[in-house]
Amino acid sequence: MTGRLSQTANSAFDPSIGEVVADRPEWTGKRKAVDRKARRHWQYPINGTRKDQYASFDAWHPIAMQVLHQESSSFRCIAVFRSVFNWASGTIEVSYATFARRGGCCSEKTIERELGIYERLGIIIVERGWRRSGEVRFRTRTIRLALPETMPSNVEISDFETDNSGPFGGDHEGE
What we know:
Elements: H1 2-9, E1 12-14, E2 19-21, E3 39-41, H2 50-70, H3 76-84, E4 91-92, H4 96-102, H5 108-121, E5 124-133, E6 136-148
Antiparallel strand pairs: 1-2, 3-6, 4-6, 5-6
Helix pairs in contact: 4-5
């Protein structure tokens, strides 16, 4: 029994073949490194109508999701963006704790890491600063939407019009 335990402690279980595999070189135990990419601000219509603001976010969101998918990055934070987005300013200013609660009750450190990956991929810009409340100073973090300066070749960029006509193209009488 101890031989089997020591084998599994130094190996990895591969569920696709149902047995322990001794060598998995792709499993290094290290976090994935992401190279920093040049980015540009997303032109968010701060003075536009709320409809224009929603449309702008809805155009940015699927592009950013594609960039994340290509890098095999987590969608946890970007799934929360809409619920914490300040539509008037075009920014996100909530705490890591709020992100963590809304992102599946994970740790704040997980959120911090994921936002760091998003920033290095060029889909957000994080501005850090200070604000004062009486005599107390607080660190602040403002997240702005962005896109990589050079878009990956297989990212589909279109107008992302939403078709709400249903499966029958507006004909709701049947197939």
